[in-house]
Design brief:
Layout (H helix, E strand, L loop, with lengths): L4 E4 L9 E6 L5 E7 L15 E8 L10 H10 L3 E6 L16 H13 L4 E10 L1 H12 L4 E7 L6 H4 L9 E2 L4 H10 L5 E4 L9 H11 L4 H6 L22 E6 L5 H12 L8 E6 L23 H22 L12 E5 L3 E5 L7 E9 L11 E4 L7 E7 L15 H4 L4 H4 L4 E5 L7 E15 L3 E11 L5 E12 L7 E12 L4 E7 L25 E7 L6 E7 L5
Parallel strand pairs: 4-5, 4-6, 6-7, 7-10, 10-11, 11-12, 15-17
Antiparallel strand pairs: 1-9, 2-3, 3-5, 8-20, 12-13, 14-15, 14-24, 16-23, 17-22, 18-21, 18-23, 18-24, 19-20, 19-22
Helix pairs in contact: 1-9, 2-3
Length: about 575
């Protein structure tokens, strides 16, 4: 069967940008746009002060509407910054081989060096951007150019390959399922200089054949996809110096509570916030947003509020997108505001307000445990079993089936833009192959502020099985929407008796009348690669094996959900 493919190339360079082809140390030239404040002709200012620069290095076409830097540029230049936006090596107008990650430290260093030699430059450079162009900031930190003074990595992580899968290399028997959507990204964006759009036939088995069909239609392959599938190759150690081992620079970590790589990003922040030398210059901004900057307070979007398609919505969103970075750069690049003006932590309590704190989790937070109870009712529909304030005294259990012919659907076509639709997932709770547990309705606001985790006493009939956990907000009308999620892949012969599922961090208000719920499933397709249910490679198996999972609760096996809550204010 043939797959329909469509390629997108570079958009025109806007009139208010000046494109340069910047030479790297190996002679490759990278296409680089410079945006200067109005009235600045690119020469050295008469007073000799120069401009600090904010550098963005990305693989998604520096001139595309998708990254909207032609529009965001005015916010940077209005604050007295030069904005420099570059297509990374091998993408769009830049030369070189299309291969992610490996040359970013050297290319970042050489680009910063070029900036410092421009007549308009004052010699200070900061970096900004999301996702892969958050990674290029960390790569530049590893290269240690002395002009790099501050970075603002948004919805990103220092190690992208670790987000796609973890086979449990530590020998614990607990790893992570293969994030199919995350690996598919390389088949779209890292084949050649453009972007290839295609929709795989999700029914094709083995799953790897879905992508072989696409590569055949394209007439080329993605080298990086081939390193990750069907067998994982960890090559990011080839970058050399780890960024966290480099000279510390001030960092504003911008994390989304609904970002699909929010878990590793928060790990990055927490590690650096505890490292001597780095700790003093770590700052956190955490909001109820997803990877594509859709916001909980405006979810689901309408045609009028979708910044991906509405120019008016984009203009409203951009100040919220760039504003925290500009305030940060005013301190660490321009020095026009004192360090004391920056809170160490600025965070959003979803459905409530924005707050500041000295640290994360915020002082005054504590753990609260909900114990899984009444598992006989957990097959749903909602409310199913119970999330109780005390562990059940007697041991009980429930089973659910993993059927590779009837996979639990992901419900969103693109988890990078989860809040674009923010679906009601209550229908999943009515399936026979999931379990759900629900708390009583709260009478006062329950404010979540910190990590969330699930500890399960679970076994399976298959040698390997997956567990997907979703923590939900159930409204008085019965709608259920995601708060946080986590997933593990369990190797039965090596797994501990109690399996921990990390669900990340959140800031979220459960409003009066609402209930907390926990949903457990054995698949989440097509966001995640279905388990093979055997020792076969899940990419290449022709027939995944079904299995039955058994959850035990109460007694000596107290399965539980643990959240971090803020103490209510004293009355």
């Amino acid at each position: 069967m043939s797959v329909r493919v469509e390629r997108t190339g570079a958009a025109p360079v806007p009139g208010h940008a000046r494109q340069h082809l910047v030479r790297m140390r190996d002679g490759t030239r990278l296409a680089t746009d410079v945006y200067l404040p109005p009235g600045h002709d690119g020469t050295e200012p008469p007073d000799g002060t120069g401009l600090p620069a904010v550098l963005v290095r990305l693989p998604y076409d520096k001139n595309s509407r998708y990254v909207y830097f032609d529009r965001a540029a005015r916010l940077f230049t209005a604050r007295g910054y030069a904005l420099v936006v570059q297509d990374v090596r091998g993408k769009f107008r830049s030369g070189g081989r299309t291969l992610p990650f490996l040359r970013e430290p050297e290319d970042g260093y050489d680009t910063i060096d070029w900036i410092t030699h421009q007549p308009w430059s004052d010699g200070a450079v900061g970096m900004f951007g999301d996702s892969y162009y958050g990674f290029t900031q960390w790569a530049a930190v590893a290269a240690q150019h002395p002009a790099l003074r501050a970075i603002v990595p948004r919805v990103t992580t220092v190690d992208f390959n670790a987000t796609t899968q973890d086979p449990g290399r530590d020998g614990s028997g607990v790893g992570r399922p293969v994030w199919l959507e995350g690996i598919e990204y390389y088949a779209h964006h890292w084949v050649d200089h453009g972007v290839w759009d295609f929709e795989p036939d999700r029914s094709v088995r083995p799953v790897i054949e879905q992508y072989e069909q696409a590569f055949q239609a394209i007439g080329a392959r993605s080298v990086w996809f081939d390193l990750l599938a069907p067998r994982f190759t960890d090559v990011l150690h080839a970058l050399g110096r780890h960024p966290f081992d480099a000279r510390p620079v001030p960092v504003l970590h911008c994390i989304g509570w609904y970002d699909n790589i929010g878990v590793p990003h928060m790990r990055d922040y927490l590690e650096l916030a505890s490292r001597p030398g780095w700790d003093a210059v770590q700052y956190l901004w955490a909001g109820a947003v997803d990877h594509e900057n859709y916001e909980l307070g405006r979810a689901p979007v309408t045609d009028a509020t979708d910044h991906a398609t509405s120019d008016a919505a984009l203009e409203r969103m951009l100040p919220r997108y760039a504003g925290p970075a500009l305030d940060f750069f005013d301190v660490f690049l321009k020095g026009v505001r004192p360090v004391s003006s920056l809170p160490k932590v600025t965070w959003e309590l979803g459905h409530a307000d924005w707050r500041t704190a000295r640290a994360w989790p915020p002082p005054g937070s504590r753990e609260r445990t909900f114990w899984l109870a009444d598992p006989a009712a957990a097959h749903g529909p909602l409310p199913g079993g119970a999330l109780a304030d005390a562990p059940p005294p007697g041991e009980d259990g429930a089973r659910w089936v993993y059927d590779p012919e009837h996979l639990v659907p992901s419900l969103v076509p693109d988890s990078f833009a989860y809040l674009r639709t923010h679906p009601d997932v209550s229908a999943l709770a009515a399936r026979e192959d999931v379990l759900v547990f629900t708390s009583p309705a709260v009478t006062e606001p329950l404010d979540l502020a910190g990590p969330v985790g699930v500890d399960l006493h679970v076994t399976g009939t298959a040698p390997v099985f997956d567990v997907f956990a979703k923590v939900l907000d159930v409204s008085p009308g019965g709608e259920a929407r995601l708060i946080v999620r986590g997933q593990v892949s369990v190797r039965g012969d090596r797994a501990p008796g109690e399996v921990h599922v990390e669900c990340g961090h959140t800031g979220y208000r459960l409003r009066p009348g609402h209930r907390l719920a926990l949903l457990l499933a054995g698949s989440d397709y097509p966001m995640f690669l279905p388990s093979s249910g055997s020792d076969e490679n899940p990419w290449t198996t022709l027939a995944a094996k079904p299995g039955t999972q058994t959850l035990r609760t109460g007694g000596a096996h107290p399965s539980r959900l643990t959240v971090t809550v803020l103490e209510p204010p004293a009355r």
